[in-house]
Structures are given as structure tokens and as C-alpha cells.
Write a structure and sequence with these properties.
This protein is α+β, with helices and mostly antiparallel strands and 199 residues long. It is 29% helix and 32% strand. It has a domain of 120 residues: Aminopeptidase, CATH 3.40.630.30. It binds coenzyme A. Pfam families: Acetyltransf_3.
Length: 199
């Protein structure tokens, strides 16, 4: 059955683009994942604090490589994307989009930072160039993120990055200890003050 509205973004919008390198500053950047990042990916999936909020386990370097290689297909399928957050080209974190919905022009943010790089506000700094690229280059109109109400570090990241708190979803996120209430934060292209979102 045909829908009665025009999609915000047509199918193929993301696939038509190359995943860019996005600079944060001279040393920090967002880039695609590479084979050399296997140890960083293993370290992330072994980190108890990351596992706490990203409840998956990785058992081998092969799985880490499959995780890395899988991002190309997921970009082509316009489902999910991921960038390595790098310091002097060494992966120290992850930022990406989940639940990409081109029809609605919306996507959900995801991020983690390895313990060695935490404490300097890196995640919030990484959110900024990705948000700009999503609004200006792709044309998304809404980016949002959800975090357990117990994950106060993520709440601070979202707020610092200008993601406005929208409310609480009850028992909305399943973690290893059961269902957690979740805060939702969002940023809209039109939040920047102009109808088209441009500054
Ligand atoms: C969330 C995460 C990416 C933040 O890493 P970071 O960018 O290095 O963040 P910082 O350590 O600099 O802390 C950012 C803010 O959170 C606060 N914070 C950090 N850890 C905290 C904690 N355990 N409890 C409460 N606040 C905390 C800091 O004080 C800082 O606050 P400020 O903005 O007022 O200065 C990192 O903690 C992480 O990878 N966590 C596990 C994965 C995760 O939670 N991902 C998000 C899932 S929704």
C-alpha cells in the first residue's frame, strides 16, 4: 500500500555517499574501521563498563574482524553505520548510527570510548562533527539517543553535545540485569535556528 507522504530522504541516499573522515581537531578524527583496529575492538567488547551498556560479548579476533568488515555492508544496506574515533589514527572509541530510518529522516546515535581515552569529554566532541555531517551532508532532520537512566555518563555526553532531554521511556532497554527505564535525547536540524537547519 502506498504511503501518503513524501519520504524525508529517498532510499539510496546514504548508499550514494562515501563514508567520510570527519576531523575533530589535529589529532582526533572519525574514520572507517580497519583491520589494524582488531585489538581496540576486542578491548572494547572486553571492557565491563562498555559491556554494561552494550550487552554483547566477543570471543575471538575473527569475530572482531567480522564486526569491522560488516560495517561496509550495513552502510550499503542503510541500516547502521560506525566510525572509529581515533587519536593520531589509533582507534580509541566508536560512534555511529543505529535504526537509520531514511523515510522519517531519523537515526539513533551510539558511542563508546575505551577506558584509556575517557575523562576528556571525547564522546561529546565526537558527536559534534557527526551530527553536522548527518544534518548538512545527508539531510537527516532528527538524531536521537537513548540511555539507561542509570547511565549518567551517557546523559552528560548527550546534554553536552546539545541533545535535548525529551523524557523517559519506561522499561525500554534490556540489559543483563533486566529492563531499564531509558532517557531519550534528541537534536533536530531545525534546532540550529533556521528552517533548513543551516547556521
Ligand atoms: C559514555 C562514555 C562514552 C563517555 O566517555 P567520555 O567522553 O570519555 O566522557 P567523560 O569521562 O569525559 O565524562 C563525560 C561527563 O560524564 C561524567 N561522568 C563520567 N562518568 C560518570 C559516571 N560514572 N557517573 C556520572 N557521571 C559520569 C563526567 O563527569 C563528565 O561530566 P561533565 O560533562 O559534567 O564534565 C564512556 O563512559 C563509555 O564508553 N561508557 C560505556 C559505554 C556507554 O555508556 N555508551 C553509551 C551507551 S547509551
Amino acid at each position: 500500500m502506498p504511503v501518503l507522504f513524501t519520504a524525508v530522504l529517498p532510499k539510496g541516499t546514504l548508499n550514494a555517499l562515501r563514508q567520510p573522515v570527519l576531523a575533530i581537531d589535529d589529532q582526533l578524527a572519525l574514520r572507517t574501521w580497519r583491520a589494524q583496529d582488531v585489538p581496540a575492538v576486542r578491548a572494547a567488547f572486553d571492557c565491563p563498563r562498555i559491556q554494561r551498556w552494550h550487552p554483547r560479548r566477543m570471543d575471538s579476533d575473527e569475530e572482531a574482524w567480522e564486526w569491522i568488515a560488516g560495517w561496509t555492508r550495513q552502510w550499503q544496506d542503510e541500516i547502521r553505520t560506525s566510525w572509529a574515533i581515533t587519536h593520531n589514527d589509533r582507534a580509541v572509541g566508536q560512534i555511529g548510527l543505529r535504526n537509520i530510518d531514511l523515510e522519517q529522516g531519523a537515526a539513533e546515535l551510539s558511542y563508546w570510548v575505551l577506558p584509556e581515552a575517557r575523562g576528556a569529554g571525547l564522546a561529546a566532541r565526537a558527536v559534534e562533527p557527526m551530527t553536522r555531517w548527518c544534518f548538512d551532508a545527508v539531510g537527516f532532520h532528527r538524531l536521537f539517543l537513548k540511555h539507561s537512566t542509570e547511565n549518567m555518563a551517557s546523559c552528560r555526553v548527550a546534554t553536552t553535545a546539545g541533545y535535548v532531554p525529551e523524557g523517559t521511556l519506561r522499561a525500554a532497554m534490556l540489559h543483563v540485569d533486566g529492563l531499564h527505564d531509558a532517557h531519550v535525547h534528541s537534536r533536530l536540524r531545525t534546532d540550529e535556528g533556521n528552517d533548513d537547519g543551516s547556521a
